[in-house]
Amino acid sequence: MTIPNAELVDKAAIDTIVKLSADECISSDIEELGAKADDIPTLTENALKDACGFINPIQATAEEISEIFRAAM
Questions:
Q1: DSSP labels, the chain
Q2: pTM of the predicted model, to two decimals?
């Protein structure tokens, strides 16, 4: 089943989450939370150990997780 205007629905959902996060003062930048680029290896290692990752249908690699952290800086 395809959803008409799926891209618009996706954008609306993301925009809503971003607005809610801003309204509730939730940072979208992990540097604001005290993380440094030097922390990325440790953050990545811990993310790989997280139990939620084991039940994901697609397993992320260490490089993919590191890239997510770099993008969040």
A1: ---TTHHHHHHHHHHHHHHHHHHTT--S-TTTTT--GGGHHHHHHHHHH-HHHHT-SSPPPHHHHHHHHHHT-
A2: 0.69
